[in-house]
Design brief:
Layout: E1 2-6, E2 8-9, H1 11-29, E3 33-37, H2 49-58, E4 62-64, H3 75-80, E5 85-86, E6 99-104, E7 107-115, H4 126-136, E8 141-147, H5 151-160, E9 167-171, E10 181-182, E11 188-190, E12 195-198, H6 207-216, E13 229-238, E14 244-252
Length: about 250
């Protein structure tokens, strides 16, 4: 089984890039299941029904979120309507599911969304949350989207779940790292799978605005960049034991 995990989708351009490339990626890598982080998929950030429908119609199976999960006030309606969208499971006092289980090729795949605590909003311990979910749920394959800032926190979670999760991949920084590997007990790991959005930008934002913000330290409103896009992600091959057999970075300009 091959699972495609797509990095943070930024705005309309990022969503259209995904829609234009996904069918080819599915063919080229014989993809069975697609996970995409959509917490920046809408204008500004967050996700709404229109953008969620667009991503799902394009072929995404599960949409994960992050620190902007509730930026759009009606996102709870998507949870209530049964959309395959999950928010970080260790967020406190919020609505919506933190994991989802889907049966693919006769195997139960559990996708868990977590958020980090270093340089991020207050949340429950992602390590304890992951342990409790994996220990208590009935699934054959566990995939973790860890939406976190600190490299060390992401690496530590990868080691903590080695042999229990098929894959731990990082999101949030919008910058793809080159440290993909399979850990000794069989967990595929990468610190960050990157971004799907405008290539000539600062994390998807117009570069001129980002530069001006750092020069002046003023509270300037960010705007998504336009122009050519890139698509970042990984393809994880799953073995019969429910752990990783391979991991490959995807970087399309």
């Amino acid at each position: 089984m091959n699972i495609l995990c797509i990095g943070d989708i930024v705005g309309r351009n990022g969503a259209e890039m995904l829609a234009g490339q996904l069918r080819y990626l599915k063919q080229d890598y014989d993809i069975d299941f697609v996970i995409a982080n959509g917490e920046n998929a809408n204008t500004g950030n967050g996700i709404n029904r229109k953008r969620a429908d667009f991503l799902l119609d394009a072929g995404v199976d599960v949409i994960t979120l992050g620190n902007h999960a509730f930026s759009k006030p009606r996102v709870t309606e998507l949870f209530n309507d049964g959309y395959p969208i999950i928010r970080p499971a260790n967020m406190t006092d919020v609505s919506g599911p933190g994991y989802i289980i889907r049966t693919v090729c006769g195997k139960k795949i559990c996708v868990i969304n977590l958020i980090g605590r270093v340089f991020m909003r207050e949340a429950d311990c992602p390590f304890e949350t992951a342990n409790n979910l994996i220990s208590g749920l009935d699934a054959d394959i566990y995939i973790i989207d860890f939406h976190a800032e600190a490299t060390s926190e992401k690496q530590a979670l990868g080691w903590y779940l080695d042999g229990r999760a098929a894959c731990v991949f990082g999101t949030h920084t919008h910058t793809q790292t080159a440290d993909e590997r399979i850990l000794p007990a069989g967990t595929a790991y990468i610190t960050d799978i990157g971004m799907t959005g405008p290539y000539n930008s600062v994390l998807g934002v117009k570069k001129e605005i980002a530069v001006q913000k750092f020069l002046t330290m003023e509270n300037i409103r960010y705007e998504h960049a336009e122009g050519n896009c890139m698509l970042n992600g990984i393809v994880v091959g799953i073995g019969e034991n429910g752990l990783a057999a391979s991991i490959k970075r995807i970087n399309i300009h």
